[in-house]
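mind reviewing both lines:
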Amino acid sequence: MLTHIDIKNFITIRQAHLNLHKGLTVVTGDTGAGKSLLIGAIQFGLGHKGSLKNTDQAQTLVSLTFDISKLPTVQAWLAEQGFDEGEGQCILSRNLTEKQRSRCTINQMPTTLSTLQVLGEQLLDIHGQHDSYLLLKNDQQRQLLDLFCADPTLPQQVAQCYQQWHQHTQELAQTKQAMQQQKDQQALLQYQLEEIQPYDLSPESLKSLDQKQKTLANAETLALACQQWHTQLNGDHQQAVLNQLQTLLHDITQLVDTMPHAETIAEQINQAIINTEEASQSIQANMSELQPNPEALAETDTLLGQLEDLARKHRVDWLQLQDKKATIEKTLEALNRSEAECDDLEAALQTSLYEYKVNATMLTAQRQDASVQLSAIIARHMQALNFLQAKVQIALIPEADDTPRRHGLEQVSFEMSTNPGQALQPLKAVASGGEISRISLAIQVATCDKHTLPTLIFDEIDVGIGGKTAEMVGKQLRDLGTGTQVICITHLAQVASQGHQHLCVNKSVADGKTQTGLTLLSQQQRIEEIARMVGGIDITEKTLAHAEAMLTIDTELDPNQGIFLQ
């Protein structure tokens, strides 16, 4: 509950100190006196956005004190955010410096404007004239109906399921689009892989192939050289190396008994003979392999040509083809993983769609039950506002298709009839300018206890009504004030007379500057103010008597406590 307001230099309010109580507080005053400045100051203190510039560049300060002793959720929020809980009291303060810089505090601890707004939404709700027209929108009607669902958190669960489904839908679409774009690339890569796949591209194989080609290409030259080498090593002539070594070995052996180390030298020469024989045999073996083979050479040249063509196609050296093959395989593997991811996303999409349908179907069932309950409550309140023949029905209109939507499977339409014999029609087709204010009030009163906010402010929502209906509106606001603090700006004496507290706004000029004052009225002052609202400028004994008869004072509240403002 809002218990205290401090205002300094807000537009034309120079300084104000307001003590507020539970019940219905009415705010009246002449047109243009500045009644809405009080609402504006409260909105400013709650962090509402909007420009505010004082012509005298004075510092603006608004401080709002709330009793939160019976608001455990707010206390828990303050503790969670690290703010002092203030022993059942919470003070929101916003200061606009001369340089138009905004500074905010909660229980004297610095905070941000957005945090101030979040807390303010948990403490107070303001209903202006435009809110009546918001009720004509199906989205607003749906939100009100959802307050009466057996599980008020279910609409949020449906919205979360929808968000999951929507996210998976987008991810799947993006993945499929990427896969489609990669499809041509994948086909090309697969073709390139199949083209390279038959070849052994290991470094050893390529090196051996290169060597084989060189050997085959020079077979005649190499064979002739080997023949010469074999003749030099093991020919039939005396100059052959092997013959000379054998003669040398025979000569040295004869000297073994007389020459030191002759035996060792003989062994070394014998080893040389063995090595020469092995070399001769190797040369002879190579000679058999070095016979010209045009077919093998052509086959090898063809294979090398194919590899060189592949290398040019991929813009690499042919010895780097193995690396290129590995790159292609890796890219194809990644593309195959995209297909697997697509399958996983498809499964996740189906799961989220199933969860959405389950929760949305439950929400539809709860809305059906809630529509019966809320229709009866609204009809009862409308009848109390002189719609004696009012009929109300809340229709659930299924969506045109089964595509998931954030709000569920249906639209919500408040339908009513305000006159006998009139068919039920959507609210926007039924209500005239005067009726919409009354219907709006009936709906707001019917749903206000679901909002669980401790303070409600109504800014001239009674525009367009009068007479007996205005009196009924005042009584409903007063009844509403028994369970919730209600602040109401009104032009109607019938509404003002129902207040537990009565504040009067006046405008004056001092030192060439306009100032707005706010006075807590005594009982006699209330009678005079009600008389002014009834009779205008000329207040007669008759209008005073009428005002006194209209006036209802709640003796539980002390009218002499409350406000000092200058």
Remarks:
- Confidence is low (pLDDT under 50) at residues 553-566.
- The chain has two domains: 2-133+451-565, 181-335.
- The longest strand covers residues 501-510.
